[in-house]
Amino acid sequence: MGDPRVVVVGGGYAGATIATSLDAVADVTRVEPKDSFVHATGALRAAVDASWEDRVFFPYDRLLARGRVVHEYAQAVTSTQVRVPAGRVLDADYLVLATGTAYPFPAKFIESDVAVAKARLARLRESLRGARAVMIVGAGPVGLELAGELPSAFPALELTIVDRAQDVLTTGDYLPQLRSAIRSQLEDRGVVFELGSQLGYLLPVDVGVLAPFTVHTRAGRRIDADMWFRCCGNTAVTDYLVGDLASARQPDGRIAVAPTLSIPGFPTVFAIGDITDIPETKRASAAIAHAHVAAANIRALIDGREPSAIKGADLYSTAMAELFGRVPGAAA
C-alpha cells in the first residue's frame, strides 16, 4: 500500500507551505495553474522596481522533493476528487483547499506564465514613466502601500487616493495614531486624499493602463489622471466546490472551518488561508500558520491519531524560512 494521497488545491503561501510540510510523509499533488510561486508581499515593490522580480517569482519545480504540481485550474472539487481540464480526475485521501482570494493587479496576478506576468509588469513601469497623474481607489493597506511605492520611484507623479470611507485604514483594527501618521506622511509627499465619497461611475479603462481620463466622485469632485489602480475588493476563490462540498461555500465565498481547520462534516478536508471565515486580518502570516495547523492534523490522521492542533500560533518567520530556504536566490 502506497503513501496516503494528499491533494492541495492552490499554490500560494498556505498551499505551498502545507505541501512542503507533508512532502516527506504523503503522496502530495498540488493543483495550481501558475508555473511559479508568487511572493505577493513583494509584488507592489516589483511593480515599480524591476530588480525585485526575482524576489517575487520562484519556480514551483524547486519546492517539493517528492511531490508534483499539476499546472491546471481545479474545475470541480468534491471531498475525495479534484477534476482538472481534459477530464482528468485526481483522487484524494486528504484534501486541502488553499486557493486564496482574487485581487486586482498589481497586488496579485492572473497570469499563469511568469514570463507573461513579468512582461505586464514591464509595460506597467514603462507606462508609469509616461504618466503625469495616477488615481488609486481604496485607502486600505494595499492602496496606501502602493501610494508609498509610486512617488518613491516616480517623484514627479501626481497621486490621488479615493475612498468612500472618511479616513484611511478603516477596515482593520488600526490605532488612530497610525492612521493619522501614515496619512500625514503621504500628504507630505504630495498625495491628495478624496475621502468620504466613492466614484460616481465606472472607468472604461483597465487598471494599470496608460489612458488619460476624467472622473467625478459622487460628491462632485473632479479627478484628472492618466492611469488608475483598484486597491479594494478581494474575493474568495471557491467557485469550484461541487457535489458534497457545494454547501460548504458561504454566500461571500468563504468556507467555515472547525478549530482544527477541517470543514465541519468532512474530517479529511481542510480549508486554509484567505478562504476561511476566521475573523482575522487576511495576511501571509495567518495563511502560513493555518498550513502548519492543518499539516499537523493530517499527520495525526495518517498515524491513526485524533487531530489536536488548533489555529492560534503565528508561525510566519519559521515557516518562511522553511519555505524559501529551499529556493536558490531567495531573500533571507
Secondary-structure map:
Layout: E1 5-9, H1 13-22, E2 27-31, E3 36-38, H2 43-46, E4 57-59, E5 68-70, E6 76-77, E7 81-84, E8 88-91, E9 94-97, E10 101-102, H3 114-130, E11 133-137, H4 141-153, E12 158-163, H5 176-188, E13 192-195, E14 213-216, E15 222-225, E16 227-230, E17 235-236, E18 262-263, E19 266-271, H6 284-302, H7 316-324
Parallel strand pairs: 1-2, 1-9, 2-5, 9-19, 11-12, 11-16, 12-13
Antiparallel strand pairs: 3-4, 6-7, 7-8, 10-17, 14-15, 18-19
Helix pairs in contact: 1-6, 6-7
> Roughly what fraction of the amino acids lie in strands?
15-25%
Low-confidence stretches: 313-332
Q: How many beta-strand segments? A: 19
Task: For the record, give the distance between the C-alpha atoms at the N and C termini, rounded to a whole number.
Answer: 39 Å
Q: What is the CATH homology-level superfamily of the largest domain?
A: FAD/NAD(P)-binding domain
SSE class = alpha/beta
Q: Describe the strand arrangement of the main beta sheet, using strand numbers.
A: 5-2-1-9-19-18
Characterization of the model:
- The structure is a single chain.
- The strands form six sheets. A six-stranded mixed beta sheet has the order 5-2-1-9-19-18, with helices on one face. It has a four-stranded parallel beta sheet with strand order 13-12-11-16, covered by helices on one side.
- Helix 4 links the parallel strand 11 (133-137) and strand 12.
- It has seven helices and 19 strands.
- The relative contact order is 0.16.
- The chain folds into two domains: 5-103 and 234-324, FAD/NAD(P)-binding domain (3-Layer(bba) Sandwich); 125-230, FAD/NAD(P)-binding domain, CATH 3.50.50.60.
- The chain has 332 residues and is of the alpha/beta class.
- Mean pLDDT is 91; it is low at 313-332.
